[in-house]
Each structure stands twice: as structure tokens, then as C-alpha cells.
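Appendix B, Record 12. Input sequence as logged:
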Amino acid sequence: MINFIEISYLKHGNERQKQAFRILTDNKILAKLYAYHPILVGTIPINIDIENSDLDVICEVSDKAEFNAELKALFGTEKGFTISESLKFDAIKANFIVDNFEIEIFGQNKPTTQQNAYLHMLVEHKLLLEKGEAFRQEIITLKQKGYKTEPAFAKLLGLEGDPYQELLKLLF
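Logged structural output:
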């Protein structure tokens, strides 16, 4: 199993993963967020990204106002910088572009290894290993047709109900 906590695995991945590694390290994005226990999650780490996939970084945040100010100070001058609050997840989200990659930083008052984005990625990675290359290609095809990642997995697996919750049930 890949150690997704740190990003060195990306150095040995596909071209897009190598590019993601360079962008994150050259711009010290995770280093700047170190105090918030950042983890890169989403489709790029598990090789199911499509052309417009972004780099999703989750963070553990206890003080949203402080995190908001920190994000503005660190990344506020980056191209396309926006910041918003998600009431649904009680979180702060920032988006910006670095070297033609959209980066999304998501901060929530929960340890990063317990956040749904990380847990979903672990389940999805496990399923991709179990089901093989044809399954991976089917996920990518559904994503290219507009499906979000979790609903694409749920569709191929025949899961009923909320795909985000159903996938978490497959974790262990």
C-alpha cells in the first residue's frame, strides 16, 4: 500500500504525478501548510485523474479564522485565488492556479487521516488494486462523462444510496 501521507511516491508515478510532485515541492505548498498536517488526496495520487483534475490538499484546522488569514498570506497573490467557507463541512476552502494546475486547499477541524477525502481515496485505491486496469479505465471514462469520483465508483460497483457514505463502508 502506498504511503499517501507524504508525496515521494509521486516521483515514481506517471508524468502527471511527477508534474504534481514538482509543483508541490518547487512551490513548497505542503511545506507552507506543514502545521496543518496536509495530505494530497483525490484522483491524481491514485491515477484516475482527467485533464481538468485539480490537486486537492486537505488540512487539519482548529481555528478557521486563523487558517483563512494564513491562506491569504501564503497564497493570496496566486493566479485565480479565491477563498470560501463550506457550511456543509464546517470548513475553509481556497483555490488558486500554479503552473496551470488548479490547487484546492480544504481545511476542516478533523485530523487529516480521518477526513472523508482521505478515507475515500484509500477505499478507491484498494478497489483499483483489486479490480484492475479495465475497472480503472471505466472509472476514468465515467469521469470524462461528468461523473464525480465517488458516484463513478458507486455506479460500477452497483452501490445504492449515498455514494460517499457507501464507499466508506468498504474501507475495512
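The longest helix spans residues 116-144.
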